[in-house]
Amino acid sequence: MTDVADSPARPARPARRGFGRRSPDDGPRASFRQLLPYLLEHRRVLVWVIVLSVLGAAASLGQPLLVNQVISRVQHGSTLGSIVWALVALVVIAGLISGYQHYLLQRTGEGVVLSSRRRLVARMLNLPIAQFDQRRTGDLVSRVGADTTALRAVLTQGLIDAVGGVLTFIGALIGMAIIDPVLLGLTVLVIGLSVVVVVALSSRIRVASRRAQEKVGDLTAAVERAISSVRTIRAAGATAHEVAAVDIDAEGAWEMGIQVARVSALVVPVAGIALQVSFLVVLGVGGYRVAAGDISVASLVTFIIFLFMLVMPLGNAFGAITSVNSALGALGRIEEIIALPGEDERDSRTASLADQRTDAPAIAFDNVTFAYPVSPQVSARVADLDAGAPTTNGEPALVLRNVSFEVPRGKRVALVGPSGAGKSTSLALIERFYDPTAGTIRLGGIDIAALPRDELRAQLGYVEQDAPALAGSLRDNLRLAAPDATDDACRAVLAAVNLGEVLGRSPLGLDAPVGEDGVMLSGGERQRLAIARALLAAPPILLLDESTSSLDGRNEQLMREAIDAVAEHRTLIVIAHRLSTVVDSDQIVVLDHGEVVGIGTHSELVATVPLYRELAKHQLLV
Ligand SMILES: Nc1ncnc2c1ncn2[C@@H]1O[C@H](COP(=O)(O)OP(=O)(O)OP(=O)(O)O)[C@@H](O)[C@H]1O
């Protein structure tokens, strides 16, 4: 019943190999191998880029040979003829090829960013709910925005002319070997040293740039927190405090950026120094060899041009090291999420709704026990503190204990109990946002763990506690679960939950925006809009987690009427914070500290369950 990622007993499954074993300092890492699927999607363009690279390299390598000819002809007093034109043509062709190739790689880079965003968002929105409990929203947002953008650099800077660069490098090496192996030996010695230095520095760049990206994630999370709670922060007079908190994260990102800059500052001049030193060595030793008659002036000039051609791609590669390493760091953060199992991947799909029994209750809890999964980070911190909460003896604290109750078809059942008793958790388990640690929940007699989640959820309408309205129009909100609903159906359902008046408020009607998180609606209106949304999909079972915010008399009346409208012809499980909403329920289940302490009608419970009597007394119902 309990599946792997949600299991409190077992920590969330470590991601695929390469992400699983790492020290806290050692964030997600990616290799070029993981980049391959993204590149292979664009293999046609990349093959074309390679062909252009080969042509470009040939056009470049042809230039020193022609220069050699020009010098020899000038030395021997012969006419230059078409050679100069051929040289000009080669330079122009090499330039055109390089421009077109650059465009193709930029385009492919954008394509890689697009497909990484698609894959990441598709996986992210399909992760088990526990992952969202344990991760910071801003950090996830930053992965979709900033990290995917960093991937572009692999193509636009890393792979730019990589093949052409290698060919030019090899061609230049061969040309130099033919002209003068001694000079080549000296050149290779100097350049080899520069490569050793850069390779040694590149791992430091990788670590620094990955940390820089993590810091950007922290920064986005801090900004997201501040913006999403802006009213509370403003009202608490805590704006300056929050600005300072965001500032600390911004500074952290800046510091890491500076670290990257410091290490890359060491790398960038290496190619230049290598070129200068080898140029001076070649000029000195080459000049001596020309004087000694070992090589001609034309050969020395050609050798020097080849030297530039050898060092140029090397310089490009050194220059790309920072951006490629940061792209690989970003890819690590993207793949860390993509490697997590999606919630639907763990569906057993061994049963179908057709197996429902008509004589079975709509929903039945059978000895359900549950503890929320504890994130590995929290576990580690608790272990460090050697403290009990939120776990006991290393085990997560139980939120539900052996809970059993039945909800007959077509009946209205209320869950009541003090705050933290486990009411909302029970609805979350019916929705399979989490799976019970022990026990079974059945829908029409079928263990819901055996049903595909989408089939199960199609049977359920769920109205969260203080349900948020989604930014967008009234119509967008209503059609979330019923995309084909007509405008007439939308209007009818709004009227059913007493929201007809909201429609008349704006000339835009159903197109009227509700604001970010529905700020343009009152708390009661948001809750009723959420009920309308659930109703429109016409599910046979409705789970309603009543708003905790106190509603005035009129709103409460409107809400009761809305619930009555909802209850018709369907099974309703309602979490009531105001007993007045549920006194006429068919059955009331009283929860306390995760245990069922009473089941019955209002009058039965007032007579037999002290906790319920107490609750009713507080709410002036007895
Ligand atoms: N996502 C979560 N991760 C960890 N613990 C949680 C999570 N959600 C709720 N809890 C804990 O589970 C317990 C039960 O919470 P639940 O929301 O089910 O209570 P409730 O009866 O609905 O309370 P209320 O009436 O205040 O809404 C609480 O102690 C709460 O702190």
TrEMBL record:
GO terms for molecular function: ATP binding. Residues 1-26 are annotated as: Disordered. The chain crosses the membrane at residues 45-66, 78-97, 159-179, 185-205, 263-285, 291-311. It is found in: Cell membrane. Pfam families: ABC_membrane, ABC_tran. SMART domains: AAA (SM00382). Residues 380-618 form the ABC transporter domain. Residues 1-12 have a biased composition (Low complexity). It is a multi-pass membrane protein. It comes from the Bacteria. SUPFAM superfamilies: ABC transporter transmembrane region, P-loop containing nucleoside triphosphate hydrolases. The keyword NAD does not apply. InterPro entries: AAA+_ATPase, ABC1_TM_dom, ABC1_TM_sf, ABC_transporter-like_ATP-bd, ABC_transporter-like_CS, P-loop_NTPase, Type_1_exporter. Residues 47-326 form the ABC transmembrane type-1 domain. Keywords: ATP-binding, Membrane, Nucleotide-binding, Transmembrane, Transmembrane helix. This is ABC transporter ATP-binding protein. It comes from Gryllotalpicola reticulitermitis.
